[in-house]
Design brief:
With about 600 residues, the protein is an alpha+beta fold. Among the domains are: about 20-125 and about 150-240, no CATH class; about 385-545, no CATH class; about 560-593. The protein is about 25% helix and about 45% strand. The chain contains eleven helices and 31 strands. β26 (about 460-470) and β27 (about 475-485) form a beta hairpin.
C-alpha cells in the first residue's frame, strides 16, 4: 500500500513538473498569426497584436495581452474601432474542471472605443453582430437549448470584478453631426454573480460640443441567471451641482420596467442654453449660398413607445429652468404599448401649486395627446420677472386650461393645438405703461393743448382682469377680455397664432370720471367712445400702438353729426315759421269781405 502511495505521489510530482515545464516553455505569441487569421475570417477585419501574449496554467489559467487593435468597418476611416493597452483575465483551474467558472478581476487599461454611424444610418459594429460563417456540412435543424444552457452557465459563473482604467469612448453620427466623448473613464465593479447585488462605481467626463460635465456614479445592480430581469439599487448619480438618487428595474423582452428617481436639485439652464439657436441678427447672411434649414427632429419617438412598458416616479427637490425656481416637483407616469399616461404632475413655486395631467397615444405614423393645466393664485409678476428678466407685472393669476393636439414634430403639435382656457388676474400692476397718462394725452389733443410729459415711473393698476379663449389649429381666439382700472374699464379681443408666434389684438379703453374700482361699473354700461390700443407683431417683440386718431375721429364725427342735426333743426324751424307766417297772411286776405 505504501509502495502504491509512493508511486502515485511520484506520478503526481511528475505531472506537476510536466505542467510547470509546459507553462514555462509554452509561447502563446507563436499563435498570433492564427488568431489574426480567425478574426479576419469571422469578421473581415484586421487584428493587430503588437504587444506580448502571456499564458499561465496553475493555479490560474491566466491570459495577459499587451497592445491589441481591431480595425474599423469598411467606409469608416483608418481610425481603429477598438484598442486596448493591457488586458488581464484569470480563471481558477480546479473549479473549471467541475464546469464552474471562477474568474479573477478582469483588468482593462487604456481602452479606446470609437463608435460611429454613417450617412446611410449604418453603424460600424453592424457587421460584428452578423459574423461570417463557413458552411462545413448539412445544417443542424435542432435548435440548441439556449434557455436551459444559458441559465446553467450563468448560474455557474462568477467573476471577482471588473476594473477599467483610463478608457476613452467616442461617438460620431454623420447624419446629425453629433459628437460625444466620454473620457477619461474609470470604472470598477465588485464580484459578479447572478441574482447577487454587484457594487458599481464610475467616474468620467462627458463632453459634447455644447457642454461638458463631470459625472460620478455609484450603485448596486444585479441580474437574473436567465438575463431577463435587471435591477438597480442605491443609485447615486452626481453631475455638476446635481445629485440623483433612486432605483430602477427592467424585465425583458417586453421592456417592462420601473423607475424611481429622486433629485435633490438640478439646474437645467446651462444645458438648455447650449441647445438654443443663435439670437436673431447675429447670423451673417451670405448671398453666395443660402444655408439649408436643419431638418426637424421628431419630438415623440413612436418606435420606442410602441415597445415600452414603464412605470415612473420622479421627485425633484429644487428645479431651475429658464431662470424660474420650483420646489417639490413630483411626477407619476406609466407607458404601455404606445399609450403614455401622466395622471399627476405637481410643482410648488411663486406662492402657488401647479397641477397638470397628460395622456398620449402613439399611432402607426402619428401621435395624439391631451391634457389639463391648473394654476391658482400664482405670483404672475415674479414668474414673468424670472422668465423674461423684466419687471413688467405684479399680481396674482389663475389659469385653467384643457388642450389636445396631434403630430410627431413640435411644429405639428403647435399647428394642431386645440383647447380652451380661462384666465383671471387680481390686484395687479402693469409696469411700463401708464393708462392715466394716456388719458391726459387724449384730453390735451381734444382741447388742442400741449402734450404733457410722461411720468418717470410708468405703471397702471389693474384691480381685476378676466378672459377666456378657444384654441383652434394653433390659434388662440379671445373675445371677452374685461378689466377694471381706477380711471377706466377695458375690453379686449383678438388672436394669438402660436404656430407662427404672431399676435393681432385690440384693447378698447373707456375712461370714467370716478376713481372707484369696485362700484360695479362695467365696460358695456359706459356711454363713451373707446380708445383703441393695437398690439401686433411677434411674441418676442410685440408692437403696441395707442390709436388716438381713431378716437378723435369718432368724436369729431359725432360733433359734426350733432352740429348737422342742429342746423337741420334750425332750418326746419325757420321753414315752419315762414310757412306759418305765409299761411297766416293768406288766410287774413281770404277772410276779408
Amino acid at each position: 500500500m505504501k509502495r502504491l502511495l509512493k508511486i502515485l505521489l511520484g506520478l503526481f510530482v511528475v505531472l506537476l513538473l510536466l505542467v510547470a515545464a509546459f507553462a514555462f516553455t509554452f509561447d502563446a505569441n507563436r499563435y498570433k498569426p492564427k488568431i489574426i487569421q480567425v478574426v479576419k475570417e469571422n469578421t473581415g477585419r484586421e487584428l493587430k497584436i503588437p504587444g506580448d501574449i502571456s499564458l499561465s496554467l496553475f493555479p490560474w489559467i491566466g491570459l495577459e495581452l499587451g497592445s491589441v487593435e481591431l480595425a474599423n468597418a469598411r467606409g469608416f476611416g483608418k481610425k481603429p474601432f477598438a484598442r486596448i493597452e493591457h488586458l488581464q483575465l484569470r480563471v481558477r483551474l480546479w473549479p473549471l474542471l467541475k464546469k464552474h467558472i471562477e474568474a479573477d478581476t478582469l483588468v482593462v487599461e487604456g481602452l479606446q472605443l470609437n463608435l460611429a454611424k454613417n450617412r446611410h444610418g449604418k453603424s460600424n459594429w453592424d457587421d460584428l453582430l452578423t459574423p461570417r460563417r463557413k458552411v462545413t456540412g448539412a445544417k443542424n435543424t435542432q435548435r440548441p437549448s439556449g434557455k436551459t444552457g444559458r441559465t446553467k452557465t450563468l448560474a455557474a459563473f462568477a467573476i471577482n470584478g471588473i476594473r477599467i482604467n483610463k478608457a476613452r469612448l467616442s461617438w460620431y453620427n454623420h447624419q446629425s453631426g453629433q459628437r460625444l466623448l466620454i473620457a477619461p473613464l474609470d470604472l470598477s465593479m465588485g464580484r459578479i454573480m447572478a441574482d447577487t447585488p454587484i457594487p458599481l462605481d464610475a467616474r468620467f467626463r462627458f463632453s459634447e460640443k455644447r457642454f461638458n460635465s463631470t459625472v460620478k456614479l455609484s450603485a448596486a445592480w444585479q441580474f437574473s441567471s436567465d438575463l431577463k430581469r435587471f435591477r438597480l439599487d442605491k443609485l447615486r448619480l452626481g453631475f455638476d451641482d446635481s445629485l440623483i438618487t433612486g432605483q430602477a428595474s427592467l424585465v425583458l423582452p417586453a421592456l417592462a420596467s420601473k423607475l424611481e428617481l429622486k433629485l435633490d436639485r438640478i439646474n437645467l439652464d446651462p444645458y438648455l442654453s447650449k441647445f438654443e439657436s443663435t439670437q436673431p441678427g447675429t447670423i451673417k447672411v451670405t448671398k453666395v449660398k443660402q444655408q439649408k434649414k436643419p431638418k426637424e427632429v421628431a419630438l415623440i419617438p413612436l418606435a420606442l413607445l410602441s415597445d415600452l412598458d414603464l412605470e415612473v416616479r420622479l421627485g425633484v427637490g429644487d428645479l431651475q429652468v429658464k431662470n424660474t425656481i420650483w420646489n417639490d416637483l413630483t411626477l407619476t407616469a406609466w407607458a404601455r404599448h404606445g399609450k403614455v399616461r401622466v395622471p399627476s404632475l405637481t410643482a410648488n413655486g411663486y406662492d402657488a401649486t401647479i397641477k397638470a395631467a397628460m395622456n398620449l397615444t402613439a399611432l402607426k405614423q402619428d401621435a395624439r395627446l391631451n391634457g389639463t393645466l391648473d394654476i391658482v393664485d400664482i405670483s404672475a409678476g415674479k414668474i414673468l420677472n424670472d422668465l423674461l428678466q423684466k419687471d413688467k407685472l405684479r399680481g396674482k393669476a389663475t389659469l385653467k386650461a384643457k388642450f389636445s393636439s396631434r403630430g410627431l414634430l413640435l411644429s405639428q403639435l403647435k399647428q394642431n393645438l386645440d383647447g380652451n382656457l380661462n384666465l383671471k388676474l387680481d390686484n395687479a400692476t402693469l409696469k411700463g405703461f401708464d393708462l392715466n397718462h394716456q388719458k391726459k394725452v387724449l384730453d390735451a389733443l381734444l382741447k388742442k393743448q400741449p402734450i404733457p410729459k410722461a411720468p418717470i415711473e410708468k405703471q397702471t393698476r389693474i384691480a381685476r382682469l378676466t378672459a377666456s379663449a378657444v384654441i383652434n389649429k394653433g390659434v388662440v381666439n379671445n373675445r371677452d377680455l374685461r378689466a377694471a382700472t381706477p380711471l377706466s374699464r377695458v375690453a379686449g379681443k383678438g388672436r394669438l397664432d402660436i404656430a407662427r408666434e404672431k399676435i393681432n389684438y385690440t384693447v378698447l379703453v373707456k375712461f370714467v370720471s370716478s376713481t372707484a374700482i369696485n362700484d360695479g361699473l362695467s365696460y358695456d354700461s359706459i356711454k363713451a367712445d373707446p380708445l383703441p390700443i393695437r398690439i401686433s407683431g411677434g411674441f418676442d417683440q410685440p408692437k403696441v400702438k395707442v390709436d388716438f386718431q381713431a378716437l378723435v375721429k369718432q368724436q369729431v364725427d359725432r360733433a359734426i353729426k350733432k352740429e348737422k342735426k342742429k342746423i337741420e333743426e334750425k332750418v326746419k324751424q325757420d321753414i315752419n315759421k315762414a310757412i306759418k307766417k305765409k299761411l297766416g297772411t293768406e288766410l287774413q286776405k281770404l277772410l276779408k269781405f
